[in-house]
Amino acid sequence: MSKLLGLADIRDWIKSLNYTASENCYIGKLDNKKDKSIGVYQLKTSNETNIAIGGIDNTKTLEKSVSILIHWNKNAKETEEISNKIYNKFLESKEFVINDIKVNYIRLLVPEAVDVGTDDKNIYERVIQAIFYYEKNEKEE
After folding, report:
1. Which of 24, 59, 66, 102 has the most CB atoms around its CB within 10 Å?
2. What is d(CA 15, CA 109) in angstroms, rounded to the nearest whole number?
3. What sign does the CA torsion over 95, 96, 102, 105 have?
4. Residue 139: which residues within 8 A CB-CB, separation 6 or more?
5. Positive or negative, the Cα torsion across 13, 14, 17, 22?
6. How many helices (H) and strands (E) does the chain have?
7. The pTM is what?
8. Is the confidence at residue 139, as pLDDT, over 60?
């Protein structure tokens, strides 16, 4: 059975980048969002599963589609700056390891961190959508 890249794995990798306090990185719903938080969500796509000719046994690369919410503060400029730093880290990252899973590269689905306005507390937010391409790993859980 292949070890799959999960949202928690990506969250932990983002934590390791040290852009925010580790307790401010989440997967799933952000209840009572703290300032300077980052949320990792499953990105809903209509893409088909990419299976190599010959089936899953011949497939070497898997995908994980994510949406990253940067929920920062009441300063639009600071929110944009940190979002750009995170975006650029994604853009530059290739051939790295997350939880014993080799990630070949990250495909960004947006040309920059997208401004989605403010929440009900006037905290600025931006979103990055990406696909992590990683090697199928036959290690057991």
Report:
1. 66
2. 21
3. negative
4. 3, 100
5. negative
6. 2, 7
7. 0.86
8. no
Pick from 114, 129, 4, 134: which is nearest to 65 by CA?
129
Question: What token pair was written down for 133?
Answer: 């391409």
pLDDT confidence tier of residue 91, bands split at 50, 70 and 90: very high
Cα torsion angle, 73, 35, 132, 90, sign: positive
Residue with tokens 């209840």: 31
Overall average pLDDT of the 10-39 stretch: 84
pLDDT at 141 over 50: no
| CA distances from residue 57 to 1, 3, 126, 138, 140 in whole angstroms, order as listed | 11, 14, 38, 10, 15
Span 46-58, average pLDDT? 67
d(CA 40, CA 51): 25
Q: How many alpha carbons fall within 13 Å on the CB side of residue 37?
A: 17
Residue in the block written with tokens 């980048």 = 17
CATH architecture for the domain at 7-135: 2-Layer Sandwich (3.30)
